[in-house]
Amino acid sequence: MNIIKTLSQNKVAMVGFAVLVMLILVAVLGPYVYEGTPWKMVQRPFIPPFENSSYLLGTDILGRDVLAGLIYGTRISLLVSFVSTVIALLIGIPLGAYAGYFGGWVDEVLMRFTEIFQTVPSFALAIVLVAIFEPSVYSITGAIALVSWPPVARLVRGEFLRLRNQEYVLAAKLNGQSNRNIILKEILPNSLSPIIVLASLMVATAILLESSLAFLGLGDPEIMSWGYMIGSSRTVIRQAWWLSFIPGVAIAVTVLALNLLGEGLNDALNPKLSGKRES
Amino acid sequence: MSIKILLYIAGRAVKGLLVLLVIAVFNFFLIRAAPGDPAQVMAGEAGATDEVFLQQLREQFGLDQPLYYQLWVYINNMLHFDMGITYRQQMPVFDLIMDRMPATLLLTGAAFVLSLLLGVLAGVVAAAKHRKWPDSAITVAALVFYATPLFWLAMMASLLFSVYLDWLPSFGMQTVGEDFAGWDKVRDIGIHLVLPAATLGLFFTAVYARMTRTSMIETSRLDFVKTAKAKGMKPSRVLYRHVLRNALLPVVTLAGLQAGQLIGGAVLTETVFAWPGIGRLMFDALFQRDYNLLLGVFFISSAMVVLFNLITDVIYCVVDPRIEL
Amino acid sequence: MTPLLKVENLSIRLPEGADREFAISNVNYDLLPGEILCVVGESGSGKSMTANAIMGLLPATIEVNRGTIIFDGYDLVSLEERRARALRGNRISMIFQEPMTALNPLMRIADQISEVFLIHTDMTSKERETRTLALLEDVGLPDPEKMMRAYPHQLSGGQRQRVMIAMALALEPSVLIADEPTTALDVTTQAQILKLIKDLQKKHNTAVMFITHDFGVVAEIADRVVVMEKGIMVEIGSRDEVLNNPQHSYTQKLIAAVPPLTAPERISHKQSDRTPVLSVNNLYKTFSTGGSWFRKGRVVKAVDNVSFDLYRGETLGLVGESGSGKSTVSRCVVRLLDSDSGEIVLGGSPIQLLKGRDLAPFRKRIQMVFQDPYGSLNPRKTIGQIIADGPIAQGMSPKDAMAKAVELLELVELPAAALDRYPHEFSGGQRQRVGIARALAHDPEVLVADEAISALDVSVQAQILDLIETLKKRLNLAVLFVVHDLRVAAQVCDRVIVMQRGKIVESGNTRQVFVSPNHAYTKSLIASIPGAHWRSGKDAKPPIPQEVVA
Amino acid sequence: MKKIVMGVVIACLPFASSVYSKPSDGGTINVVVQPEPPSLMIGMYSNGTTQQVGGNIFEGLLRYDKDLNPHSLLATSWENSNDGKTWTFHLKPDVLWHDGQAFTSADVVFSVDKLLRQTNARLRTSLAFVDSITATDDYTVVFQLKEPYGPFIRLFEVGTMPMMPKHIYAGTDYKTNPANHHPIGTGPFKFDEWQKGSFIHLTKNENYHVKGLPHIDDIYWHVIPDAASRAVAYETGKIDVLPGGSVENFDVARLSELDNTCVTTDGWEFFAPQAWLWLNNRQGPTADKRFRQAVMYAMDREFAKSVLWNGYGEIAKGPIGSKTKFFDDSLPDYEYNPEKAKALLKEMGYDGTPVRLMPMPYGETWQRWAEVIKQNLKEVGIKTTIVSTDVAGWNQKISDWDYDISFTYLYQYGDPALGVARSYISSNIAKGSPWNNAEGYNDPQIDKWFDEAAVAFPDSKRAELYKKIQHKLVEDVPVAWLMELEFPTIYNCKIENLIDSGIGINDAFGTAWIKQ
């Protein structure tokens, strides 16, 4: 399709896409290459990177392989961020769709509800949720989803408000189509572009959120994650700055890749906003 | 101010208060869902205790009452502008929050102003030099800062500027043990503020730069810009007089939204730089199960969001004559 | 006479990937002092390109490939930007199509006008203010003192266009470029603006380059005419030559497509002995905006006691300017909007209160064709799905519905191959045909056409009108034709209803209304039609060439 | 009646002789306080940091040196009767409270019998052995015990039995008394200001009852909630003293190598913190003795000591710390021996049921330790799931016995009867507290021995009983002992005499001085 073509011409977006594909590959295949567990203490602690060829990125405070940690960390970062984004979409899209499509008191009620979630500072809420339900992949994913759906609802509502008076929607009404059909088949497919763009940015934000939580010690203790790696080596930042530095770069690169892809998608899907076409 | 605006503000305030009340109730139950209670935490720190002591603490805090009664007491107190007493510090919650508020306001305010000024400036430059090297440089920098985890940036900044270069203090708000007064105090707080405000601000600078740039580019495609050009105006003047003000409208909205969120959202920065603010207070209150304090912080920061949204709307209405409240 | 402005061999290249290489190629024309030169063409003809090149308003991706634009001895194409700027807004100025967006929404009117003085003169602020006030008076704005302090959104479209004109003429330029300045305006406002431009042009002896798609406007104001087709100048000549004796086939086609103003004599139905298929009785609808808990919003009576009957086999025109409530009536009638009170009787049954399932069977009997050929088809669905969806929703099997879609495509003269293609692959006229096919898929009794042709180029308009006319006859449809273009109304409607501010001010047999309007408003409407004297129906309609599927 | 005089009459506070001849006066000490104490009212709050700060404001009757011998402070001398049941304390005259009121025996009786009996859980347990407390004159207090109670003489340090001003607290609600916010004691430093979240400021008590003391003018206790920032603060010279446990262990090695930096593990003798794993004796694999022994063999405690604790501390051999009185060094070793662990597991037929492992939410080291032990256990075939929780959740889970394995560390308070017995005797099995016999070990023989040992007289009898206890417990492994912890205090070498007692930083900085 057109979009893929436009996107594939956007070099920067393709770089982002390539990095992302690579990360997904690492997440899926990495554990097969690096068998066992990233928690295993394999060598003496604090081996700097590029010093020992078996442990390319060195070892951490307990003598665990940093590279193995990075690889396993890719998994959790991507998993949590994708799943939480999907959940946020599953909450936000129906809510926004109903509010925007029906308007009136439905809109009023749903938007007040959304407002509640938007009013509470989101990161603080995420912290509280994770702490209360005790850190685990589930509570972290859930908390991130729970604080990130309101923008989706707002966006979808806006799109539905805009599209519900489009003539093809009116035509569908005149055709006697059900509201469900109109929402799902007429309006939703046409509001997908901005949702996709938002979703790509939400994945990026979710990665940052997940790592921030893990940094604060609110990560799943069973799972090696980038945020955990930074948080746990923070106390030794003077002796071994690379232990905090390396996972931070991993996060930045991933989030950057997602942002580049998101920008590219935005250019491809919303030509109005793109810098490419001026007329 | 006209009656209309006052009525509007009153209406919004009432709605906002309702939202806040719902939030308070929601938070009340949320926090009670957490395992353990404040008595256990305090007893836990003591290292040795027994049921008698725990019970004494619970009675003192009113935690021995049924939950619905505690909620009623809490809401009732709230309606009388009383946020209760912190369990740990034995101070009125409101006083404690107000104690910490200046630090947070200083940090977030500085970061906010800094990021808004820098961000808008960068965005304008990028848009003015659209598709030339300054645009690319700013866009790339903005993207990178946007993608970098805040806490990590903070750590790296403190490593570089405090540890290796020893230019700036890496934690706290004032030099400990020094009793500065007057300008010395201002200077002292100022140098402590640099790193936290800069790292917190950088992220938002990136946000505003990106937004301003996009908005400027979009606005410069609008018809009235064509009109301005057709008048024979210099491009820089067109940019400044016509594009900028219009382009800033969405930035104002975003800024207002974030200004409110910033109050409760600086936990990470406050943690890394040991800044004695609200975010840190919240974090500690959470782990100490200081229910009243935690609820209080949430209430105040939510109220800030409501307040800032309202202020944004009013500003918007002043900036954009089309908007009628 | 020495030309003021000389366009020579001008070619402008489009960026790669556009539908053609040149926006315009090899364009040559002069603009003489004191004349009004109309540049005419359909959308995409490149008629505005030259004007943008003159004003230095070409987008960065588009550049002049070849040729010169000589003004005052300088070639504007190669002139240094700083010196070109000194001319803009000063010696050459321009007004645009969209009065709603052409003014900076955040600046007061006075500031926007006096900016011109600020840029090009060294007047004091006092002088600037006096001059601005004088200009506002000149362009006939009411209460100029108050206007000075007003913001654009507080003005009507016509008023804003007057502000634009004031701004453009502030320094008495020798050339005024007007790019479709009246297209977005209602017909009465258009007449006023055209008159204003003409008056001011006479007064200051300004040369005007007037870009338009509307031959009525050309007939009204042009001295000379340039006709553009796909970037090529196909004809140039005096107004009378071009309008009455067009040489190029394209010009001929365009002119032939302009509906004559006079309504033809029609067989009048004996309405008394037939039952109307649709009756609307005492319909009311109000809109309120901007209300909140503490305040009442503004209330607009969009439909105010409207009643009419519609019979099978006839076309009833609903005419009026924007805001007259004609579209609201049509949407109430098809039950896209709920009316406040009154009765809508379809085939004997009142339908104004029905909801959901009860309404569904009536949906089939009254269908609508929409205005926007781009917005009325779901871009994510194939043409086949779009047409078949309705019958499927009404219970037809998908297979039958598809078969029916094929039939319908044939009916609206589209090839069956269109079935699996998406809307973006079709032109505006073709899409409108799809829209008609969709409406007909239910075998309706009543077809409501809501400005169904107003977004189309004039040559395509004629084809769609013909199609509707043919279908009406073939299927014995009752057509409610909502239209603002009185020329079109005159041609296709058996009866017309004229609406103003929600009320019906006049109704009757089309010819009768056009020949001897009773109501003052109807009279002013008809008097405002540009070029009313031209093509008043004495000459026969030439045959319309068929559009071919891409 | 013959009395044994145990105290010295001369009130001589400094018992650590200083290397440098002449202490100089003046200067400020900046200390880290972590976490911020809930209150400075040491009589009500036994939180570590309350004691650290409050220990400068308040005083007990006695102090203890690093060998836990009692020395005079507010009491100048004391005698115990021959039957071990009557203790008479002679108070120092001319001691003033910070508000100028005189300190007398009435304050002692009020503090111990009224206030502390109600507010101090730890003392309350010991006061059960006390029949009566009476003031015979203004400067004499007599404690009449029901039985000779071995640990009695260890109860008089400021954290366990602080003297509170009767004239302020008598007849008030202790918890809400305004003086809690502005504590009044007899100590060498007076409370000046507490900026919550920032610092606590104490100033020199000019009217201190020991002439010439204190040397220091001001003490600032700084609240720096972040461990890394605390380390930086020390490095940049903003902080002079990092009390044990206030920086992460990983930072200790680096900080100790800085110029002008002194490190000492002194000052924990009285507490002798002992770390172990609670093993839930009631259910699951941990209910099996062989499983518990296997855990002991599976753990690489040397690794933990050298990597996590930078070599500080000792591997714990059993329930009683090696530096504590009554420690028996003939106990068998549980060396690191995965094979033996595997064999034991095989013998018991362990089916691989996963067990929950709950780290202690008190800092990075404990989190890492859990990760290490998880790996250790994994290598002998025990699958664990780390349960992540915060302080409140941790307390509740242990109090509710909702765990399989969990970390903890407890103080010994100088005597097994005070700090050890509580974790093993069956009368201490009760839900609701994480500090009792939370593992649910129940053995009548042990109960009996501990009961007897508390009141046996003289000490040789006690030693015999404790020996039996130790051997039996080490065999049963009710909990898995990890280490005797040592928390190094890091401080700027310019400070002399910082730690001069068995409670270390929890005692006053009365004799400390700064080298000019």
TrEMBL record, chain A:
- The answer to keyword Transport applying to this record is yes
Instruction: Write down the membrane topology.
Output: Multi-pass membrane protein
Q: What's this protein's name?
A: Peptide/nickel transport system permease protein
PANTHER family for this protein: D,D-DIPEPTIDE TRANSPORT SYSTEM PERMEASE PROTEIN DDPC-RELATED (PTHR43386:SF1), OLIGOPEPTIDE TRANSPORT SYSTEM PERMEASE PROTEIN APPC (PTHR43386)
The protein's location, in the record's own words, is:
Cell membrane
Q: Name one GO cellular component term.
A: plasma membrane
Keywords for this protein: Cell membrane, Membrane, Transmembrane, Transmembrane helix, Transport
* Any single GO BP term: transmembrane transport
The entry's family comment says: Belongs to the binding-protein-dependent transport system permease family.
Q: Which InterPro entries match?
A: BP-dependent_transpt_permease, MetI-like, MetI-like_sf, OppC_N
From TrEMBL, chain B:
The record, for InterPro entries, names: BPD_transp_1_N (IPR045621), MetI-like (IPR000515), MetI-like_sf (IPR035906)
GO terms classed as biological process: transmembrane transport
**Could you give one GO CC term from the UniProt record?**
plasma membrane
- Kindly state which keywords UniProt assigns to this record, in alphabetical order: Cell membrane, Membrane, Transmembrane, Transmembrane helix, Transport
Q: Where in the cell is it found?
A: Cell membrane
Q: Where is the ABC transmembrane type-1 domain?
A: 101-316
SUPFAM superfamilies reported for this sequence: MetI-like
Q: Which Gene3D superfamilies match?
A: MetI-like
Specify the domain of life of the species encoding this protein.
Bacteria
Transmembrane ranges, per UniProt, are 12-31, 105-128, 140-165, 189-209, 247-273, 293-319
Q: What is its main location?
A: membrane
Q: How does it sit in the membrane?
A: Multi-pass membrane protein
Query: Which family does the similarity line name?
Result: Belongs to the binding-protein-dependent transport system permease family.
**UniProt protein name:** Peptide/nickel transport system permease protein
Native species of this protein? Neptunomonas antarctica
UniProtKB/TrEMBL annotation, chain C:
Q: Where does this one sit in the cell?
A: Cell inner membrane
Q: How does it sit in the membrane?
A: Peripheral membrane protein
Which GO molecular function entries does the Swiss-Prot or TrEMBL record give? ATP binding; ATP hydrolysis activity
| Tagged with keyword Cell membrane | yes
Main EC class the enzyme belongs to: translocase
Q: Which GO terms describe its cellular component?
A: plasma membrane
Give the residue range of the signal peptide.
none
Q: What is its main location?
A: membrane
The record's listing under Pfam families reads:
ABC_tran, oligo_HPY
Sequence ranges assigned to domain ABC transporter in this UniProt record: 5-255, 278-526
EC number(s): the record gives 7.4.2.9
Entries under InterPro entries matching the protein? AAA+_ATPase, ABC_Ni/Peptide_Import, ABC_transporter-like_ATP-bd, ABC_transporter-like_CS, Oligopep_ABC_C, P-loop_NTPase
* Catalytic activities: a dipeptide(out) + ATP + H2O = a dipeptide(in) + ADP + phosphate + H(+)
Keywords recorded for this protein, A-Z: ATP-binding, Cell membrane, Membrane, Nucleotide-binding, Transport
Q: What is a biological process (GO) this protein takes part in? A: peptide transport
What family does the entry list?
Answer: Belongs to the ABC transporter superfamily.
- Which protein are we looking at? ABC-type dipeptide transporter
Give the organism, scientific name.
Neptunomonas antarctica
Automatic annotation (TrEMBL), chain D:
| GO biological process terms, semicolon-separated | peptide transport
Q: Name one GO cellular component term.
A: outer membrane-bounded periplasmic space
Q: What does the record list as coiled-coil region(s)? A: none
Q: Where is the Solute-binding protein family domain?
A: 70-417
Key words, A-Z: Signal
Which segment of the chain is annotated as a signal peptide?
1-21
Q: Does the keyword Lipid biosynthesis apply?
A: no
- Which GO MF terms are attached to this record? peptide transmembrane transporter activity
What family is reported? Belongs to the bacterial solute-binding protein 5 family.
Listed name of the protein: Peptide/nickel transport system substrate-binding protein
Q: Specify the species.
A: Neptunomonas antarctica
